[in-house]
Amino acid sequence: MRLTRLAAVLAAAVVLAPGGAQAAVGDPGSLDRSFSGDGRAVLDYGSRYDDQQATDVLPLPSGKTVVVSALSTSTGSAFGVARLRANGTPDPHFSANGRRTTTFTGNDAPHRVVSLGDGRILVAGSAGGAFGLVAYQHDGSLDPSFGTGGKVVTDVSPGADRVLDLRREPDGSILAAGIAGDQFATVRYDADGSLDHSFGAGGVVLTTDGFPGDPYAVRLAPDGKLLATGMGDRDSQDVRPLLVSRYDVDGSLDQTFGGDGRVTTVPQSADYQDAEYLEGDALLVDPEGRVLVGGELDWADYSFFCLVRYLPDGTLDASFADDGLAIDGGDGYYAQIRSLAQQADGKIVAAGWTDRVRKSLTLAVLRYTTTGERDTTFSGDGDAIIGFGGQPRSSAYAVAVRGSRIVAAGDAYGLVGARTVGVVAQLRQ
């Protein structure tokens, strides 16, 4: 079945999750009904792929939207790239039906996408355990001017390597950062995909100190430094703290951040003294150089939305929420932030999931003020909970801001049989 027909069939079944305050049509936090008819689109690459998870979203200046997905079968995995028109329908000028798949080794997964200009895009992730990058032309074909037939594979370490962040520099060069075995790596490529040998050792910079815990996200700061976050090792109170590390461009720990390059954070509020862990899953560096970390707090078999802001030197920003931490359960049992973006006015947009509605995980988009409070002008209470018909599980892994719109992408299980498919929601700011 073609994607256009499938999206039309599913659109009739898509409903806004009931419960809680909801924005009126046209208000901030409401679904943009000019997008796919009701603000939601479904991406399905066919029954061959039983697990399809949108991992990043790129709103283009033209009004079109690129969504990249990790596509898995029982025997392997591939990159999935789709482009939607401004109205949310598949763009027939991109690979004929609005989507295409790409493989390196057959065990591949994309994570990030950036624009290369002139309608070209670059997608990066893992290619059989190495850094994998692939460039596409405006029509969805592989770009022969990049790498070998549009693809580049860089085996950074003997372990498993994967790109977690990607950036195109003003001079056209490309920075890719991620995990390389038990280290972090930053790799710089020339515009044609060749390694920039003037950077690090043959184009690669590895960190000199490992991450004492479990890393879940990395981010390239505007100054070229690398940030990593996740959970640290258990402390003397048997709590796993939120851990953030910052590395200089040479791979060494940045001693100006937290005094030794690392900061750990545990909740100070008496309400959460028995927390099991505080986890970082998303990173953002704002224009003032402050570091925002989104994730979850686990406490008493509950998990809560958690947003933390640090000053550029790694100290908690006391002007933000409760001494730097904004913790909110969302009136459910489970809640987690997986992606962050920032509006032009400084407000912070977060996306993830909550089980506040029907006690089933549901895609959620939240907005915070610049001081870390829930923005109640957004969907009435600061969060928009977006269901996708019946009772499928849904979640967001990526969020981006375009003009007066917010675009979130993730997945939903139960819309198309016992499979997971990608979903996109567009909301008004």
UniProtKB/TrEMBL annotation:
Its domain of life?
Answer: Bacteria
Answer yes or no on keyword Acyltransferase.
Answer: no
Q: Which UniProt keywords apply?
A: Signal
Presence of the UniProt keyword NAD in the record: no
Q: Which residues form the signal peptide?
A: 1-23
* Pfam families cross-referenced by the UniProt entry: DUF5122
Cross-referenced InterPro entries, in alphabetical order? Delta_60_rpt
Listed Gene3D superfamilies: 2.80.10.50
Report the protein name in the record: Delta-60 repeat domain-containing protein
Q: Which organism is it from?
A: Nocardioides koreensis
